[in-house]
UniProtKB/TrEMBL annotation:
Domain of life (superkingdom): Bacteria
Cellular localisation: Cytoplasm
Family per record: Belongs to the heat shock protein 90 family.
Name this polypeptide is given: Chaperone protein HtpG
SMART domains per the UniProt record, alphabetical: HATPase_c
Species for this entry: Aeribacillus alveayuensis
Gene responsible for this protein: htpG
Span of domain Histidine kinase/HSP90-like ATPase: 24-177
PROSITE patterns, per database record: HSP90
Length: 625
């Protein structure tokens, strides 16, 4: 059966191209400049194999010429130019890329990389222009031609005059409308900003006559404006330079030029990957936390370049959430771009780069921790919470990667320690890694629940961040040692006084039952404490939800009323216990009063609010009179 050819309605196709591919009009300039750069590159390649041709870098440039009077924007290049046939083929056929053909034919391999591949970028000019005129003279030709088009209607080609080899693209800008101001593309500042944003690392100078001001000669306070030709782009991206050519200052300057932050980065990572995936990257670990970092407004991501041309200002897929504080850029030739160069096809390359970057950041942070503890602690103060979120999120799938980057305040060392350091110091008989939760280190240090563990001489990690306990529950253990809250019912160290407390529990069973009834559903149980030494009372929790977790969950907007199973623990060695016993025998009303008072005291110690503060203060007054 004969295969029929698809027919394309080229007029319609062009309209689609112009109106649907790009989300931002300003990218037309990026596309035209990229074509100009490709055209110069082509001369460079020709010179490699043609002995009659030399490539003298200084002769090649791109010039941007806005003309307010004529409402035109001209982009001129000294590249290879186009013959009549090439104008016809390359600009008269949508999706025909002369550059792609050139690349394939010349099997280009070295550092100069031609950008064009889809054969559509040129038409983006019609987003901002009614009429596009191309005047071109090809290398090795004596004739010049003018190609002109008003868009979908078609184009004309005719001979014209042009002195030098190269191409001039003249855009007659559209009239302004209520929604669109095309004049902006005649404005020097705006043009400069667009060039800097997308085309800063085009290898050839992008020049423009820029208006400057100077003091009038012979005058004190009179100024005059004058035009000066300036090169707008930086040209050589520092990421393509060798690391040994660059100084710390170069990296810091780049950080500031790119507006990654106002601070000085504490570490930078320069990656030149040339293996399974080829890319260059410069990454920074900032010193200071951005003001919006822990808000929804904060956007993570790295700048993404393809061949030095900006594709995305913030590519989120390159950074995992737990490293969202990292700033920087990635440049790769191997990306699968979509036709507008605004997005990437979700490809293997990008995933490989992201994985690679993730491991490099992890290694860099681990090195920082080893080499400069003070700086790491400062970093952790800013971004540690994000690392802990990382341990907790995604069902703990990143906990192995992140656990050695965590720091917690230690009761014994009185400073921040790693889990590794904690475990390496554990006495042989210590079963668990102990932790205590609270608002501040000072408050935690005073918690009655810590008494037994501290008396045993064991180290306690202080958890002051809401996320801490959740993250640790996800970790479950570190190097085979389980985590244990000092408030949990079984601390694993009560052997000696275990039997005694059990006996006391039995002996005072009726008293505790009475107290439990007084407190009704507020507590699950009232027990003799195995952990209290000097304090009369404390609250602990049975089960998976701790009192701290209950507090955090309660503060969440969609809280599910998840509650900890609270246990009121009484220190039977404390003189208060005698008073309780006495009241139990002689005055049940008094026992009720004492029970409520002790319960409310325990709440206060935990940082929980009292249901009825007025009742509480009345109760305190009652025992005074
Ligand atoms: N300034 C120029 N000098 C020489 N040739 C040019 C110039 N501008 C465009 N061309 C030719 O026109 C072709 C089509 O350009 P167009 O921008 O539409 O696509 P492209 O650059 O090949 O691909 P992409 O859509 O990926 O940018 C180019 O491949 C190139 O051969």
């Amino acid at each position: 059966m004969a295969t029929k050819q698809f027919k394309a309605e080229s007029k319609r196709l062009l309209e689609l191209m112009i109106n649907s591919i790009y989300s931002q009009k300003e990218v037309f300039l990026r596309e035209i400049i990229s074509n100009a750069s490709d055209a110069i590159d082509k001369i460079y390649y020709k010179a490699l194999t043609d002995e009659h041709l030399t490539f003298d870098q200084d002769r090649y440039y791109i010039k941007i010429i806005p003309d307010r009077k004529k409402r035109t924007l001209t982009i001129k290049d000294t590249g290879i130019g186009m013959t009549k046939e090439e104008l016809e083929n390359n600009l008269g056929t949508i999706a025909k890329s002369g550059s792609l053909a050139f690349k394939t034919k010349n099997e280009l391999q070295d550092d100069h990389h031609i950008i064009g591949q889809f054969g559509v970028g040129f038409y983006s000019a019609f987003m901002v222009a009614d009429v596009v005129t191309v005047i071109s003279k090809a290398l090795g030709s004596n004739e010049a031609y003018k190609w002109e088009s008003k868009g979908a209607e078609g184009y004309t080609i005719e001979p014209c005059e042009k002195d030098s080899v190269g191409t001039e693209i003249i855009l007659k800008l559209k009239e302004n409308t209520e929604d669109e101001n095309y004049d902006e593309f005649l404005d020097e500042y705006r043009l400069k900003a667009i060039i800097k944003k997308y085309s800063d690392f085009i290898r050839y100078p992008i020049k423009m006559d820029v208006t400057e001001r100077r003091r009038k000669e012979g005058s004190e306070n009179e100024f005059e404006e004058y035009k000066e030709e300036q090169v707008i782009n930086s040209m050589v991206p520092i990421w393509r330079k060798n690391k040994n050519e660059l100084t710390k200052e170069d990296y810091e300057n780049f950080y500031h030029e790119k507006h990654f932050g106002f601070d000085k980065p504490i570490r930078y990572i320069h990656i030149k990957a040339d293996g399974a995936v080829r890319y260059n990257a410069i990454l920074y670990i900032p010193e200071k936390i951005p003001f919006d970092y822990y808000t929804q407004e904060y956007e993570k991501g790295l700048e993404l370049y393809s061949n030095g041309v900006l594709i995305m200002e913030k590519c989120p897929d390159l950074l995992p959430d737990y490293f969202s504080f990292v700033k920087g850029m990635v440049d790769s030739e191997d990306l699968s771009l979509n036709i507008s160069r605004e997005m990437l096809q979700h490809d293997r390359q990008l995933k490989l780069i992201a994985k690679n970057i993730k491991n490099k950041i992890k290694r860099e942070l681990a090195n920082l921790l080893k080499e400069n503890r003070e700086q790491y602690e400062a970093f952790f103060q800013s971004f540690g919470r994000q690392l802990k979120y990382g341990v907790y999120s995604d069902f703990g799938s990143n906990k192995e990667l992140l656990q050695d980057l965590l720091l917690f305040y230690s009761s014994k060392e009185k400073k921040y320690v790693t889990l590794e350091e904690y475990v390496s110091r554990m006495p042989g008989e210590q079963k668990y890694i102990y932790y205590a939760t609270g608002d501040t280190n000072e408050k935690i240090a005073k918690l009655p629940q810590t008494e037994l563990v501290t008396e045993k001489g064991y180290e306690i990690l202080y958890f002051t961040d809401e996320i801490d306990e959740f993250a640790i529950k996800m970790l479950k253990e570190y190097k085979g040692k389980e985590f244990k809250s000092v408030s949990s019912s079984d601390l694993g160290i009560e052997e000696e006084n275990e039997k005694q407390t059990d006996a006391e529990e039995k002996e005072n069973h009726e008293l505790f039952e009475f107290m439990k009834k007084v407190l009704s559903d507020k507590v699950k149980d009232v027990r003799a404490s195995k952990r209290l030494k000097t304090h009369p009372v404390c609250l602990t929790a049975d089960g998976d939800v701790s009192i701290e977790m209950e507090k955090v969950l309660k503060a969440m907007p969609n809280n599910q009323h998840i509650q900890a199973n609270k246990i009121l623990e009484i220190n039977v060695q404390h003189p208060v216990f005698q008073s309780l016993n006495k009241a139990f025998e002689q005055d049940k009303e008094k026992l009720k009063l004492y029970t409520n008072l002790l319960y409310n005291q325990a709440l206060l110690i935990e940082g929980l609010s009292i249901d009825d503060p007025v009742q509480f203060t009345n109760d305190v007054c009652k025992i005074m009179v």
